[in-house]
Amino acid sequence: AALSCRYVLCEVVSEDPRCRQCIEDRAVGLAVRDAVGRVHGDYGLACCSISFTVKYLNAYTGTVLLRCRKDSYRLLCSALPFVRQLESRNQRYPCSLNTLHVGGTIRTCQKFLIQYNRRQLLMLLQNCTNEEERRCIQKSLLSCSLTEEQSQSGDEEDDDGPE
């Protein structure tokens, strides 16, 4: 059987608009490893590094999906608040990682993200100032669903659910 994994869904939060351009797999991976090393030392870093990877990333929304072994996800999650910056091309951009959800499969994280995006859009909808804005947000709300293609992706490694 494959190693049991956990998927940690986060969002990159930054005041600096230029931060978006350096949200890339490598920069996020390095920032997370750096934080784990600072908080848990070499042992914690070694535990977390086994099968750790940035599984999905959307620079536009700042959404990041991290994968790690089930037995080290608490180490990983406890270090995420200590991520303070992303580095790209010798530039440093201050930011933080906000953990949204921890799931046993990519699919549960996708489902959570859809609901989360829906809630964010509904909050925006309440603050609309004109009809055009309302129409755009309502259209976005309707597109918040999983397509068949995504659900057939076969990227499920294990589904032993949350603990």
Query: Order of strands across the widest beta sheet?
Result: 2-3-1-6
Radius of gyration: 17 Å
Question: Mean pLDDT, nearest integer?
Answer: 83
Overall SS class = alpha+beta
Helix content: 40-55%
The total of beta strands comes to: 6
Order of helices and strands: EHEEHEEEHHH
Number of helices: 5
Structural write-up:
The protein has 163 residues and is α+β, with helices and mostly antiparallel strands. The protein has 5 helices and 6 strands, in the order βαββαβββααα. Strands 2-3-1-6 form a 4-stranded antiparallel sheet, with helices on both faces. Strands 4-5 form a two-stranded antiparallel ribbon. α3 (106-126) runs antiparallel to α4. It is globular, with a radius of gyration of 17 Å. The protein starts with a strand and ends in a 12-residue tail after the last helix. The model is unreliable at 148-163 (pLDDT under 50).
Task: Give me some keywords for this one.
6 strands; two-stranded antiparallel sheet; alpha+beta; 4-stranded antiparallel beta sheet; rRNA processing; 42% helix; tRNA processing; RNase_P/MRP_POP5; 163 residues; disordered C terminus
How is this structure best summarized?
This protein has 163 residues and is α+β, with helices and mostly antiparallel strands. It contains five helices and six strands, in the order E-H-E-E-H-E-E-E-H-H-H.
Topology overview:
Layout (H helix, E strand, L loop, with lengths): L4 E9 L11 H25 L3 E6 L4 E7 L3 H7 L5 E4 L2 E4 L1 E8 L2 H21 L4 H12 L5 H4 L12
Antiparallel strand pairs: 1-3, 1-6, 2-3, 4-5
Helix pairs in contact: 1-2, 3-4
Main location: nucleus
Protein name: Ribonuclease P/MRP protein subunit POP5
Function: Component of ribonuclease P, a protein complex that generates mature tRNA molecules by cleaving their 5'-ends. Also a component of the MRP ribonuclease complex, which cleaves pre-rRNA sequences.
